[in-house]
Design brief:
The complex is a heterodimer.
Chain A: H1 13-30, H2 32-38, H3 42-65, E1 75-79, H4 85-93, E2 97-109, E3 116-126, E4 135-137, E5 151-155, H5 156-161, E6 169-172, E7 175-185, E8 199-203, H6 204-210, E9 219-226, H7 233-239, H8 241-246, E10 250-253, H9 254-297, H10 299-307, H11 312-342, H12 344-349, H13 363-387, H14 413-430, H15 433-464, H16 471-480, H17 487-519, E11 526-531, H18 536-545, E12 552-564, E13 567-568, H19 569-573, H20 581-584, E14 587-592, E15 600-604, E16 616-622, H21 623-629, E17 636-641, E18 644-655, E19 667-670, E20 680-685, H22 690-703, E21 708-711, H23 712-751, H24 753-765, H25 770-807, H26 817-842, H27 847-851
Chain B: E1 7-20, E2 23-36, E3 40-44, H1 51-58, E4 66-71, E5 74-75, H2 81-91, E6 92-95, H3 107-117, H4 123-133, H5 149-161, E7 167-171, H6 179-196, E8 199-203, H7 207-211, E9 215-220, E10 223-225
Parallel strand pairs in B: 3-8, 3-9, 6-7, 7-8
Antiparallel strand pairs in B: 1-2, 1-4, 4-5, 9-10
Helix pairs in contact in B: 3-4, 3-5, 4-5, 5-6
Classes of the chains: A alpha+beta, B alpha/beta.
Bound molecules: adenosine-5'-triphosphate (ATP) and magnesium ion.
Residues 51-52, 171 of chain B line the site of magnesium ion (MG).
């Protein structure tokens, strides 16, 4: 029967392939969860990636689809001042069909309840929107507005706030109006735009007849155009650039808007992608470690198969199949979850998007995310598999025998490939090399820092536990250093997630704290503006009657700048490196004899009074703007104050804290020259409670319907709301990474089970009591949890400090609550994960373990 | 009867050294042996004398530092691990002190593995047959963890023979078993070895077991003692 070598083996390649599959199947049959679970850590990461990519895809599609509706027109020209004859003549020359729009702030109030709110009033004359629609309920409400001078269209949020419905009456300024419908969406505008000052549409006829728009109040004028098919809007704008600049108009075409939008969303997409990728990375590392533990447990099998003469490739293939199946399982599950998530993102972000997102399956995004995730995961799973080459058949004869270790890189090259893959994926995403490089490098750096800090903590711990410490503690510490352990890995994974979460929460807290600080204490929180000079004293009396004190009052005179530092504005506008808006704007300046305490003169000298016939008026300029313009003390400018030229000289520069709610100005004039110019007043006060605030606002709107009121607490609520929504998405993604870290922990603990079981039983056999074993277990996970928590929280705090301080320029106001609770949360979760999985072993009968040589 | 059978395994003056830091430790020193088809050889000697090392070399699990080994007509020295694996696959059977069954496979599947590796379509039939011969026909679908030590070793015996090897390598096959069970395994080994015409090379500490072999090789400090 015994034939010479080389003749008994009748296998074909196909048979061998089949055999390896069969062995893989038999393996999973006995431990269905071992390898299959190994794919689990990557699910959330791939889900995040697929969701983000799909969302980006949907977004691009929406921009493409609504391309022309982004503006509702081919060209928009706008100005911050009332158009003069020259502007009107120019507008006449724009080809195609045009429409006119005016926007300004006013107070909406409900006569019955006395409630009020600052709104943005808009009126349109002409066929705007030329593309897309004003979405209203009832549908024709917008089109019928011109025939309904008493009608007003309100944004949904207003209807909800004041419990209004169509047909109800209300007042805007001093005008009685009737709700004509509900405004759902305007072309190219995000819903969130109306959060601070909700939009309200009136007929142009009403606006012009009513005197709602008084001289001095700030209005924006817009002219929208639909071009004939044969005129290219961008070319037309280019050809008329000079005139547009000279007339101090701003222009925007569809192409420009689109480009700006795409840029913004590229940024948002990149950011979400980054966070999603962090989750994927963690997941892949998790899969790698789970596979490592699994293959480690397969060493004996590998050695035996080799001893029986199995080809290395065949033996390896039996494990490769399992890795492939678990990886693919994880990737597909991730893809599915990602698609589900994709429906969630627009729900959260929808209000901030200027286009309506239609969620549709993005096959390329899904395929790309899933296959990238799968490939990436595979690269992390390969090193342990390749490491099996070191397994010698001699291990069957001599347990614990291990052949000479190859250099680590002999089987770690897939990790290098993974880094390359990241780079190419990023490159493909952004289309640029440098950001892709930075992205890859940053990621590497973050992981390295985390791993290093983790290692450092570990080493310190090892040194710190004295020999005299209780046995259970020493054993617990030793367990963290068990050969081929996963401690650094778990530490890095949980640490990364924790750090991300702590960072986000702290930065958010700092941002909110900053706003809170500005509204707390003695600071003003209600502003009144559009006050006519003859209303000022009556307003003060009314406020005092109600128990309020007007804290700071300033007259406001609107003016435009004609020339600066000896050169006309038109010339300045030619410069490229220059914030054009800052010269085109309408300045709202004040005049006063004495500066307020908070106005800090940093250069020159404040001159408070001049005689009316002074040739050159000394003024004070805000330092930031002076820097932007590159002008300083002694430079002159010519202002146009409602047709009258004034020459001024900068004699002092001031530092202004724009975040404070008080009348802040770029230019302050001395008293004595502007007293006769048309002006209105601005004043602020402070209400301690929301009830007080509401009472005052009611009283003021009842008596002065044309005075606008800005309630800072409302603004604050709105900002908080916006911050919450934005951070929700980010936190959601960060939560993914933490969750992935936990899944990783569970899977590592789960896969280390065999090893642990043997140890536990050995300890039991050696006479350790259950309590002692429990203590060891508890100690080990307390240490692991505390180390991961400390690493993550520590890095999170440092990162939050850096971001708050140097990126967002926020003072540190965060309390220790976030870091402390994050630390204990991580500790607790680690303990739960460890102890639940650990004590399960203890209750297992030891007989099969002994019988099967503990394997 | 065996004296004129062809030589199936031959080791000539093999030495094996291990590097222990700076100095090298000679574990086997110029050991020679030969084994004819169907013959049985027991290797005995004190612990650490190099028995397992010698067995490993003969089976091609390791390579000697000096000397020649030929197995089934082929020189092992100078061959890659993969080539030696092929020779093992076709010509060798193994029995270990600690059984080494694959825990995820049933008794039947465990016993069939070597024949499956050779692509034999009757792998299961052969395994079933052998398991019947070792008295485990009732236990075919059991997993190793559901078998006693003696039963596991009987499955290992069946596995060792399923590919009709020309040499059976056994390293203390009864070392983990009680005397009674050890006896049964030894009976099985020798009778199957005889009926299949397989050569047997056996390491043991058991004098009686060694006495049942055709020849006995004494090792001491890595050298053969006559
Ligand atoms: N990889 C190795 N590195 C260094 N020394 C080794 C190695 N493998 C075996 N040895 C040494 O070689 C010597 C022989 O080992 P071997 O296992 O062959 O002995 P043995 O005769 O089988 O002993 P036992 O009866 O206890 O199984 C021992 O002293 C052992 O320490
Ligand atoms: Mg031995």
């Amino acid at each position: 029967m015994s034939l010479p070598a080389g003749q008994k083996d009748r296998t074909t390649f196909r048979q061998r392939l089949f055999w390896s599959l069969l062995m893989a199947f038999r393996d999973t049959r006995a431990h269905p969860w071992g390898f299959l679970l190994a794919g689990l850590p990557v699910v959330l990461g791939i889900a995040a990636l697929v969701a983000v990519e799909s969302f980006r895809d949907n977004m691009e599609e929406a921009i493409e689809r609504e391309s022309r509706q982004l503006l509702g027109a081919d060209l928009v020209l706008s100005a911050r001042r009332t158009p003069d004859a020259e502007v009107a003549a120019f507008l006449e020359k724009v080809p195609g069909e045009g429409a006119r729009e005016v926007q300004f702030s006013s107070m909406l109030n409900i006569p019955e309840s006395g409630e009020s709110r600052l709104v943005q009033v808009r009126a349109i004359e002409g066929g705007f929107p030329f593309y897309g629609q004003m979405e209203t309920v009832p549908a024709e409400a917008f089109a019928e507005l011109p025939d309904n001078p008493e009608g007003v269209l309100l944004e949904e949020s207003l209807l909800v706030q004041f419990a209004l419905k169509t047909g109800d009456s209300l007042r805007i300024g001093d005008q009685e109006l009737v709700v004509a419908g509900n405004l759902r969406r305007t072309p190219g505008e995000a819903g969130a735009l109306g959060m601070i000052a909700p939009r309200v549409y009136l007929s142009m006829e009403k606006v012009e007849a009513s005197g709602l728009l008084t001289t001095g109040s700030v209005a924006r004028h817009r002219w929208t155009f639909r071009f004939p098919a044969d005129v290219d809007p961008d070319a037309w704008v280019d050809a008329h650039r000079e005139q547009i600049d000279r007339l101090q108009l701003r222009s925007e075409t569809v192409a420009e808007r689109r480009e700006a939008l795409e840029e913004t969303f590229q940024l948002l997409g990149n950011f979400l992608h980054l966070v999603g990728f962090a989750a994927l990375l963690l997941g892949a590392v998790g899969v790698g470690s789970a596979v490592r533990v699994q293959t480690e447990a397969k060493r004996d099998q590998m050695a035996l198969l080799r001893c029986l003469g199995t080809r290395y490739t065949d033996a390896r293939r039996t494990i490769l199949w399992q890795i492939l199946v678990s990886g693919a399982g994880g990737a597909l599950l991730g893809g599915g979850t990602g698609v589900a998530l994709q429906y969630l993102l627009p729900l959260v972000l929808g209000d901030f998007l200027p286009v309506a997102i239609e969620v549709s399956l993005a096959p390329w995004a899904i395929l790309g995310g899933v296959s990238f995730g799968f490939l990436f995961t595979l690269l992390f799973a390969l090193p342990p598999l390749l490491g099996l080459r070191e397994v010698s058949p001699l291990e069957t004869l001599r347990s614990g025998f291990s052949a000479d270790q190859q250099s680590r890189w002999a089987h770690r090259w897939p990790l290098g490939l993974a880094v390359l893959l990241v780079f190419f994926f990023a490159w493909w995403q952004t289309g640029e090399i440098l950001p892709a490089l930075a992205y890859t490098g940053g990621l590497l750096l973050a992981v390295t820092i985390l791993a290093l800090v983790g290692k450092l903590f570990l080493l310190t711990l090892r040194k710190a536990v004295p020999y005299g410490a209780p046995w259970a503690w020493r054993q617990a510490t030793a367990n963290l250093f068990r050969p081929r352990n996963q401690t650094t890995l778990v530490l890095t994974a949980i640490g990364l997630g924790t750090a991300l979460l702590v960072l986000l929460f702290l930065v958010r807290e700092n941002a909110l704290g900053q706003i809170q600080e500005e509204t707390g204490g003695e600071q003003a929180n209600i502003a009144f503006f559009d006050i006519q000079p003859n209303q000022l004293e009556r307003l003060r009396e009314l406020a005092e009657r109600e128990g309020f004190e007007l804290m700071e009052t300033a007259p406001i005179v609107t003016m435009r700048i004609r020339s600066l530092a000896g050169r006309p504005v038109e010339e300045w506008l030619q410069r490229e490196d220059f914030p054009r808006w800052s010269l085109q704007r309408e300045f709202r300046s004040t005049f006063r004899a004495e500066l307020a305490d908070k106005d800090q003169v940093v250069a020159g000298e404040w001159i408070g009074e001049v005689s009316p016939d002074e040739e050159v008026i000394p003024v004070s300029l805000e330092k930031g703007l002076a820097d932007d313009w590159g002008v300083g003390l002694g430079d002159r400018a010519v202002f146009d104050v409602q047709g009258v030229p004034f020459e001024v000289e900068i004699t002092s520069l001031r530092e202004v804290d724009w975040r404070e709610m008080r009348p802040n100005f770029f230019f302050i004039f001395p008293s004595g020259v502007l007293e006769e110019a048309p002006r209105f007043y601005l004043t602020v006060t402070r209400a301690e409670t929301t009830e007080d605030s509401a009472r005052l606002q009611r009283a003021v709107t009842r008596e002065f319907p044309t005075i606008s009121i800005l309630d800072l607490s409302l603004v604050l609520d709105t900002i908080r709301e916006i911050l919450n929504r934005v951070t929700f998405v980010i936190q959601f993604m960060a939560f993914f990474t933490v969750a992935t870290g936990m899944v990783l922990l569970f899977s590592v603990i789960g896969t280390e089970r065999h090893q642990r079981m043997r140890e536990t039983h050995l300890l039991r056999v050696l006479g350790a009591s259950r309590t002692t074993i429990r203590k060891v277990l508890l100690g080990e996970y307390i240490l692991l949890g505390a180390l991961s928590g400390a690493t993550g929280v520590g890095i999170g705090i440092v990162a939050a400090y850096a971001v708050s301080r140097w990126v967002l320029d926020l003072p540190w106001t965060a309390s220790p609550i976030v870091p402390v609770s994050a630390f204990f949360l991580v500790l607790l979760l680690t303990l739960i994960a460890g102890v639940t999985t650990g004590t399960k072993n203890m209750n297992k009968p030891s007989l099969p373990i002994l019988r099967n040589d503990g394997k | 009867m065996t004296t004129d059978s062809p030589i199936i395994l031959e080791a000539r003056e093999v030495s094996r050294r291990y590097q222990q830091g700076r100095r090298s430790l000679t574990v086997l020193n110029k050991v020679s042996l030969s084994l004819r088809r169907g013959e049985s050889l027991a290797i005995v000697g004190p612990s650490g004398s190099g028995k397992t090392t010698l067995l490993g070399l003969c089976a091609g699990l390791d390579l000697p530092d000096e000397g020649e080994i030929s197995f089934a007509g082929q020189a092992l020295t100078g061959r890659s691990e993969e080539e030696r694996a092929t020779i093992r696959r076709e010509q060798a059977g193994f029995i270990f002190q600690s059984f080494h069954l694959l825990p995820t496979l049933t008794a039947l599947e465990n016993a069939a593995v070597p024949a499956e590796l050779l692509g034999w379509s009757d792998a299961r039939e052969r395994a079933k047959n052998l398991l019947r011969q070792v008295g485990l026909e009732e236990r075919l679908q059991h997993y190793p963890s559901q078998l006693s030590g003696g039963e596991q070793q009987r499955v290992a015996v069946a596995r060792a023979l399923v590919n009709s090897p020309s040499v059976l390598f056994a390293d203390e096959p009864t070392g983990n078993l009680d005397t009674q069970t050890g006896e049964t395994i030894a009976d099985l080994l020798f009778s199957l070895n005889e009926s299949a015409g397989t050569a047997l090379i056996l390491i043991t500490h058991d004098e009686r077991l060694a006495g049942r072999a055709d020849r006995v090789l004494y090792l001491r400090n890595g050298e053969v003692q006559e």
